[in-house]
Design brief:
By secondary structure, the protein is an alpha+beta fold. Helices cover 30% and strands 23% of the residues. The chain is globular.
């Protein structure tokens, strides 16, 4: 079954402990549930699949930290040992049969589960957006609802037109994405800020960057000519021939940089350091079955990596929990 199958049980156990069994009335519905409801309204309900990023593929490999990473964080992830990983790449949206080359498949996602020494995991959930369209879970819910209420024949300005006008970060964020030539040829970003804690207690806010060996983007006409599953099909074939390599990096916040709003990127002039090399060298034969049972949580951290004051990771984790419970 491979490393992915061995570790999905651990994710299942952790999420079941988070699921609230008591029903709530509509007025008290948490925003995390409202987000999943909005996704289901927009894309429909597809049993066994995620409410968002429903279509994907799972592969395996290992991560080895660069020597300088341990100076920033005391996390065992960065101690230089080879750390086994389970990685899921995905298309955006809640349609399991979305065409990989369609605009609706952007942004693409990359979720990494690092299997740490001692039997614990830490997760990283990143995507090809350079920054998030909105700042809060409530705004993300409203964006989803605006899209669902803006059919092609809706009068102008549509609900989504109005939302974009009142949230200028949203169209700017969506303008940063393109269809990649391969999941392996895309750059992925950690839109949320996290805090590294060094061995002597020094703290440094960071945002992740996962850089491929090369970035290849397709024009819309080129993407439209591709087979519907070209991304999902190509990655395992590529890995079977040659390992796929990414470089995990961290953009370092400077004094005064805000960490609360994921829709506000830090200046491009901020220092970027390499944290290590991610090598993907094993396709997963039963990828579809494995990914249905996997859960990646942006709040599943390890000592040496902490949440910042960015509220979105907690909202994301809550929505993933709701979605996971429904697809079980």
């Amino acid at each position: 079954m491979g490393m992915a199958a061995k570790h999905f049980g651990r994710s299942l156990a952790s999420v079941l402990a988070l699921v609230v069994s008591a029903p709530v009335v509509a007025a008290d519905t948490p925003v995390t549930t409202q987000i999943v409801d909005a996704l289901n309204k927009l894309y429909g309900t597809h049993p066994g699949f995620r409410a968002n990023h429903a279509k994907g593929v799972v592969v395996e490999g290992h991560f080895k930290a660069s020597p300088g990473a341990a100076q920033l964080s005391r996390a065992s992830l960065f101690d230089g040992r080879a750390i086994a990983v389970t990685v899921r790449f995905s298309d955006s949206g809640g349609l399991p049969d979305v065409a990989d080359g369609s605009a609706g498949a952007n942004p693409h996602g990359m979720s990494i589960k690092f299997h740490l020494p001692g039997g614990t995991d830490t997760d990283m959930v990143i995507n090809s957006l350079k920054f998030f369209p909105v700042a809060t879970g409530e705004d993300f819910r409203d964006l989803l609802l605006a899209i669902s209420e803006s059919p092609p024949n809706a009068p102008k300005p549509t609900k989504v037109d109005q939302f974009m006008a009142s949230h200028p970060s949203a169209p700017k964020a969506f303008a940063t994405v393109s269809t990649p030539g391969s999941f392996a040829d895309e750059e992925y970003y950690g839109i949320d800020a996290f805090v590294f804690v060094s061995k002597d207690g020094r703290k440094q806010a960071v945002r992740y960057i996962m850089a491929p060996e090369k970035v290849v983007h397709l024009t819309p006409p080129e993407a439209g000519k591709k087979a519907p599953d070209f991304l999902v099909d190509e990655l395992p074939k590529r890995i079977a021939q040659k390992p796929v390599v990414f470089h995990l990096k961290a953009q370092l916040a400077a004094a005064g940089d805000q960490t609360k709003d994921p829709s506000e990127p830090w200046p491009d002039t901020r220092k970027v350091v390499e944290l290590g090399v991610l090598t993907l060298d094993k396709p997963v034969a039963d990828s579809l079955a494995v990914q249905k049972k996997l859960l990646f949580m942006p709040t599943q951290l390890t000592d040496g990596i902490e949440l910042s004051d960015d509220p979105l990771p907690i909202v994301r984790a809550g929505a993933y929990t709701v979605s996971f419970a429904r697809r079980q």
